[in-house]
């Protein structure tokens, strides 16, 4: 069969864009990826300084099956590109007065639960069985739907399983039915942070994330998360896609209700289709004229955004004791922090934070005898940082980190870089400086998310963390595949 070769412009080179570019070029289309920054990966960029190699965005490799399924669709495996290591313990949690290592093995995890709350081991098995069902149906079937209409979700299996999805039950209430121990509850609520919403506003469906966490495990690609970015760029190029860096799209030119050209910093390219993988809000509000947009400013103002964050990249002299690869500081009140992120939208009074110590696993990311630390404090979107505030939160975190681990960090810093909301806005054209896109609340799930299609201009599509299925690296990869199917459908109509 001869294919109708089309010119397709992809805006941005995040995971969703690269996934879409790979699928579309595999079908023989001429795909050009235009990226504002100087490397692939979007928020999963990296930089090197003073001998350290820092991942700038994602650090948790969850749902390895999704990555593998992606590579398999091109006759490849993740192992053709990078070396994955399963972390054990998966991560460490610092509570108020104690520390907990979350083991990779389910039998050890069951014992751990039992030691915290009598009878909770058996409840964990039941909880995971239910979460496994949600994961199987949710990840293997629901998230691959384009979310254009409610009718997509009306198939027999999905309908018969609807009550098991617990879409209308809050995650917070759901886990409290089975568990009472505060540490267990915090452990189960933590992946909801990934989804960027409060556990009371998140459907119990998302206990599928606990299955991803506790059963499928936490992995790390040696060399860093940016290895995934590079591998997806290579894969897309192997299919024929081309990449242009330092070349932002500044305008989508529309004529007769069709996008005709992309105007970039380096020139104008005639195009048959556009896949927008940059932040949805930016594409609509800044690259398209008002009459060509799906949504207006007031629509966006009403969305619940996932958080932004304060980041600190540190190169430290000496190795760290008492830290694992991933470390969660849950030594302050979760609810108060969540309230300040989502409801009052103010600077947190006593934030939880996360520390990634990648050089514990990977010698290539720090010079010998030195440590690579990445510190993340989730904050509300829309806040503007100042140097003074960044310093304040740095010291607040350091006070807790140094005391709890016994390491002297501040006196041994070789390299430090701070990163915050205005960096997200400037570097990625991110709406309100969001880090993770749109929160996965019930009102922003599936067909209730911003649409993958532009309803006014039939050859413009969107992908990435502000549309279906949502934030996170695996969802972004899936989003690229889903949008590519929609583009192909449109091509084949003609
Ligand atoms: C600090 C941080 C930690 C995270 N941790 C995790 C984690 O541990 N695990 C996980 O799974 N997920 C994590 N995430 C979320 C995950 O990284 C994102 O959901 C995912 O990478 C988003 O991919 P995307 O395809 O939507 O595009 P993005 O990564 O947002 O890429 C969009 C690209 O578009 C480009 N662009 C913008 N405007 C233009 C323009 N006009 N022209 C051309 N290009 C443009 C941007 O420069 C960017 O490269 C984290 C995110 C952050 C920020």
Q: How far apart, in Å, are the first and last alpha carbons?
A: 15 Å
Morphology call: globular
Strand content: 15-25%
Structural category is alpha/beta
CATH architecture of the domain at 7-45 and 225-302 and 440-493: 3-Layer(bba) Sandwich
* Cross-sheet strand order for the largest sheet: 7-6-15-16-17-14-18
**Number of distinct helices:** 16
Helical content (DSSP H or I, runs of 4+): 25-40%
Report the radius of gyration as a whole number of Å.
Answer: 22 Å
State the name of the first-level CATH class of the domain at 7-45 and 225-302 and 440-493: Alpha Beta
- CATH topology name of the domain at 7-45 and 225-302 and 440-493: FAD/NAD(P)-binding domain
Q: Got a strand count? A: 19
**Unreliable runs:** none
> Quick check: average pLDDT?
95
Explain what you see.
The chain has 494 residues and is of the alpha/beta class. Among the domains are: 171 residues, FAD/NAD(P)-binding domain; 93 residues, Guanine Nucleotide Dissociation Inhibitor, domain 1, CATH 1.10.405. 36% of the residues lie in helices and 19% in strands. It contains 16 helices and 19 strands. Strands 7-6-15-16-17-14-18 form a seven-stranded mixed beta sheet. The protein has a five-stranded parallel beta sheet with strand order 9-2-1-13-19, covered by helices on one side. Strands 10-11-12 form a three-stranded antiparallel beta sheet, with no helix packed on it. α1 packs parallel to α10, α1 packs parallel to α16 and α3 packs across α4. The longest helix is centred in the first third of the chain and has 21 residues. It is globular. The two termini are 15 Å apart. The relative contact order is 0.19. The structure holds flavin-adenine dinucleotide. Flavin-adenine dinucleotide (FAD) binds next to α1, β14 and α16.
């Amino acid at each position: 069969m001869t294919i109708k070769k089309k010119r397709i412009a992809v805006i941005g080179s995040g995971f969703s864009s690269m996934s879409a570019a790979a699928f579309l070029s595999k079908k023989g289309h001429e795909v050009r990826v235009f990226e504002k920054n100087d490397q692939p990966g979007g928020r999963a960029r990296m930089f090197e300084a003073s001998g350290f190699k820092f991942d700038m965005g994602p650090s948790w490799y969850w749902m390895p099956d999704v990555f593998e399924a992606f590579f398999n669709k091109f006759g490849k495996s993740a192992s053709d590109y990078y070396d994955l290591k399963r972390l054990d313990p998966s991560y460490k949690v610092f509570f108020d007065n104690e520390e907990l290592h979350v083991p990779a093995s389910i039998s050890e995890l069951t014992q751990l639960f039992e030691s915290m709350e009598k009878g909770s081991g058996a409840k964990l098995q039941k909880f995971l069985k239910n979460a496994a069902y949600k994961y199987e149906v949710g990840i293997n079937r629901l998230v691959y739907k384009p979310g254009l209409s409610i009718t997509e979700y009306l198939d027999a299996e999905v309908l018969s399983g609807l009550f098991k999805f617990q879409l209308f039950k809050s995650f917070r209430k759901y886990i409290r039915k089975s568990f009472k121990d505060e540490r267990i509850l915090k452990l189960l609520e933590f992946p909801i942070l990934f989804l960027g919403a409060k556990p009371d506003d998140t459907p119990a469906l998302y206990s599928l994330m606990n299955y991803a966490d506790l059963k499928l495990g936490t992995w790390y690609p040696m060399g860093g998360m940016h290895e995934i970015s590079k591998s997806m760029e290579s894969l897309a190029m192997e299919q024929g896609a081309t990449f242009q860096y330092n070349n932002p799209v500044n305008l989508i030119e529309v004529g007769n209700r069709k996008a005709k050209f992309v105007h970039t910093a380096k020139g104008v390219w005639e195009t048959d289709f556009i896949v927008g993988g940059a932040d949805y809000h930016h594409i609509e509000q800044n690259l398209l004229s008002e009459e060509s947009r799906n949504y207006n400013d007031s629509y966006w103002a009403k969305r619940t955004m996932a958080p932004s964050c304060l980041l600190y990249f540190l190169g430290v002299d000496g190795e760290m004791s008492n830290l694992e690869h991933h470390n969660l500081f849950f030594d302050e009140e979760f609810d108060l922090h969540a309230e300040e992120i989502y409801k009052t939208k103010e600077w947190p009074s006593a934030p939880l934070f996360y520390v990634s110590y990648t050089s514990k696993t990977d010698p290539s990311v720090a010079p010998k005898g030195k440590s690579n630390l990445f510190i993340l404090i989730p904050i509300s979107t829309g806040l503007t940082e100042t140097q003074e505030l960044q310093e304040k939160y740095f010291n607040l975190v350091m006070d807790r980190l140094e005391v709890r681990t016994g390491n002297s960090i501040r006196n041994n810093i070789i390299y430090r870089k701070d990163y915050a909301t205005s960096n997200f806005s400037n570097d990625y054209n991110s709406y309100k400086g969001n880090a993770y896109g749109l929160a996965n609340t019930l009102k922003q799930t599936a067909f209730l998310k911003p649409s993958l299609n532009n309803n006014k201009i039939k050859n413009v599509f969107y992908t990435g963390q502000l549309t279906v299925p949502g934030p996170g690296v695996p969802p972004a990869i899936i989003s690229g595949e889903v949008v590519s199917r929609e583009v192909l459908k449109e091509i084949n109509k003609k």
